[in-house]
Design a protein that fits this description.
By secondary structure, the protein is α+β, with helices and mostly antiparallel strands. The chain is about 65% helix and about 10% strand. Helix 2 (about 35-55) packs across helix 3 (about 65-75) and helix 5 (about 135-200) runs antiparallel to helix 8 (about 280-300).
Length: about 450
Amino acid sequence: MSRFRSPIGCRIGALALILLLPGEPLAAGLPAGYSELDARVREALASVDAASMSTGETLASPLDPRQIGRLAARVNPEAIEALTRVRRQLLAVRKELGLPDVELKLEASDFTRVPEFNSMQGNMLAISRVFPLGGKLSGRAAATFHGARQAYHEYEGIVLDLIKDARAAAAELYSAERQTRILNDNIALSRQMAEVARIKYTTGLVIQQDVLKAEVEAARYENEQLETVRMADVARSMLATLLVRPVDAPIPPASLPTATAETATVEQLESMARSTRPELLAAAAAAAKAQAELRIANAERHRPDLMGQVGYMQNPLGDMSSWQAMVGINLPWFNSRRKHEVAEAAAGAAGEGRRLEAVWNRTRFVIREAHLRVRESAASVALFRDKLVPQANQTFDSARANYETDRVDFLTLVDAQRMLKESTMGQVRAEAELERRRADLDRAVGTRAQTPAGQEASR
């Protein structure tokens, strides 16, 4: 140990300690935004674990699609798999910041056949490690982190799809339940009309055909009701499936959010989508990852790695021993493979940049189309609410009063009832379609909350 007391020995000992560093990544070396994303993913995974141990949260009544989407994200296998993939990528970031393994070498030398060495023999035990230079470790960590960001935005897309599907199913359930009630009202109304016709028939004012027509109308509405009941059952099954519950699980009645006038322009929605649409954000993360990989390839080509080694050599006879230290670098400039790696990475970066442009072009089209469809549905709802339904009500009331005073025939009354039924059911269908299209627009923009399209939602 006296050799370590000399200046050279101390330097060799210090080098040995450096080589044996555990190579754990420092928190200061993590990419910007890592801690925030890691905390967000941990929180989401904790909610998944909590959901797996609970018996199921009670659903709000009337049904809240936001709650459905939130609960579905905790139990949906696809969403959980995507979230787990993000967590795995985040762990890989820390791995990329770690140093390569320490190498342990044992060398035996025999110079007995060389007269100048006078039967010299020796054994050497050495440790060595490579230290990547030029920011390669941080570059690889940055590329992996961008991959984690991409995976997280893909997970967000799955969650938004679940919310959109929940809103669409809730709108379908609302439509089916309302139409069923409307048909119930019309069945009761047809029976009232049949009773009026029966009274008039007994007094000889009308023929028996009027009574039969009223009964046939009631039967027609009962037949239509079979379809609306089926639609409601399918919608409930869809909602239960989103929650990974039995398809016959009880689902509360549905309602629609209060409709408000559209205020956001297409340009405003496009601007919002740049920071909210998962597909766009995932493509941007993929482009950033490709750029980071290009920087790594350039570093690998132009900047060498440092290799350090410390060894102890001992003569088996015990008459000679020594410490050895060595440093070295690789020579990437003489390896043509590095040039091709740079070209490959540059092509990948260019491709991801073009892909980002394509995703943005597609986003603009999807937003514009969804916005036009919402405007169309909003106009249709207003037309039913302000004109068609009030006019159908007036027409039916007039026909009913005139029939009771024998001023119109029964067929006129039946036609007026059919017009009223079609108008009221048409309004319900238009309202449900408007909500579905609002959900499509919110999904196109990337907003999470069930707010009127165009209003910024919290993420």
